[in-house]
Amino acid sequence: MVDFAGWEMPVQYAGILAEHKAVREEAGVFDISHMGEFLVSGLRAEAWLDILLTNRVASLPVGQAQYSLMLNERGGVIDDLIVYRNGPEEFLLVVNASMIAEDAAWMLARLDEGVEFKNLSEDFAALAVQGPQAAAVFEKLFSRPMPAERNRVIEIGPPRAFVLTTGYTGEPGFEWIVPVAEAAAAWRSALDAGAKPCGLGARDTLRLEMCYPLNGSDLSPDRTPLEAGLGFFVDLEKQDFVGKSALVAQKSAGFPSRLVALKVTEKSPPIRPHYPVWANGEPVTETTSGALSPSLGCGIAMAYLPADLAKPGQEVEIEVRGRKFRACVHKKPFYHKKA
User: Fold this and answer.
1) CB neighbour class for 324 (10 Å; exposed up to 12, middle 13-18, buried from 19)
2) Are 126 and 175 in contact (CB under 8 A)?
3) What's the CA dihedral at 247, 250, 255, 260 to 10 degrees?
4) Cα 129 from Cα 133, distance rounded (Å)
5) Euclidean distance between CA atoms 26 and 265, whole angstroms
6) Are 112 and 29 in contact (CB under 8 A)?
7) What are phi and psi of 137, to 5 degrees?
8) Which residues does residue 3 pair with via DSSP β-bridges, in sequence order?
9) Rounded CA gap, 55 and 268, in Å?
């Protein structure tokens, strides 16, 4: 158990390798009750969110979800989050645990008339069931088929509980948000339905194999989503939004750096964040995330490299406790599902 954003969280149950394998081959369940939940509603809710977030909220149909980002005026990332449209004038936002207070303060300071904002993070618990057998777990829990479509949101009993078909592992699955009083029962029922308990360790190796960025590590207020390779989730054609002018200027001038995937090409100790990265005999950056990939059997990492060094195939070295190990820029993601 470790402290994580003020929560006591499990790093592992049976072990990181076993839990990683369970998600890639069967079904695992993660306790994600530390994540924050905001409910935004009202006649101006859609327009207000479009001003605060990078993706086009107005294009989101009822019952669908989208990944988006909240930026500062410089275009740096405050938080990355998922927006779920529950109804024509109601949205559920799921935000990162370490950013709940800051996100809420940022949004409330810019609150529009005609918008109601509720921070319900203390009212909800949440589980994430991920893996090829997640659909079987879903059917046992809810006596109905799991929606085949990704990025769906369904309100389900008890009142104000939600099922969301998004995820952070690259596998099919769903999130189950329930009132806090239902948390323990929901966890037990997920285990009874066949999901294996998984902790933060496997969550990190699974998301890193998919090159999904982690806020506070791969994303920060000093880096833009364009540098992070998240331009797909930034709609520069929509109305003005916070940070847009900085992104337009950066796109015109060219990116100073890019977040790349690095694969270690020789046997090495596990790669961790903040390890120096060398190119052409000089230290040029440091890793933002790193791990031993259970699926690939080698060290993997992400780092912001200068734009001229960011092309796949570029050779670099990662320094681990004074020793340098050969690595190269790898096309994202690291992991691809076998046919």
Assistant:
1) middle
2) yes
3) -10
4) 9
5) 29
6) no
7) -65, -45
8) 8
9) 39
The residue written with tokens 């960011």 in the block is 310
Q: Which residue has the tokens 């449209």?
A: 85
CA distance 199 to 201: 6
Residue indicated by tokens 């847009």: 244
Q: How far apart are the C-alpha atoms of 255 and 266, rounded to whole Å?
A: 30
Measured distance CA(204)–CA(200) in Å, rounded: 6
Give the tokens for residue 93: 């936002």
Domains by residue range for the chain, with CATH = 36-111+224-254 (3.30.70.1400)
Please answer whether residues 275 and 336 qualify as being in contact, where contact means their C-beta atoms are separated by less than 8 angstroms. no
Contact 304, 275 (CB under 8 A): no
Token code pair at residue 240: 């003005």
Quote the strand ranges of the chain, DSSP E: 2-4, 7-9, 28-31, 36-41, 65-71, 77-87, 90-95, 116-119, 124-130, 153-156, 161-164, 173-179, 196-198, 257-264, 276-279, 282-293, 298-306, 315-320, 323-330
pLDDT, position 148: 85
Q: φ, ψ for residue 41 (rounded to 5)?
A: -145, 170
* Tokens at 21, concatenated: 């394998």
Task: Report cis status (omega within 30 of 0) of the bond before 158.
Answer: yes
Tell me, what amino acid is at 1? Answer: M
Q: Which residue has the tokens 């659909």?
A: 135
Please report the pLDDT score of residue 211 as a whole number: 98
For the chain, residues with pLDDT lower than 70 are 157-160, 339
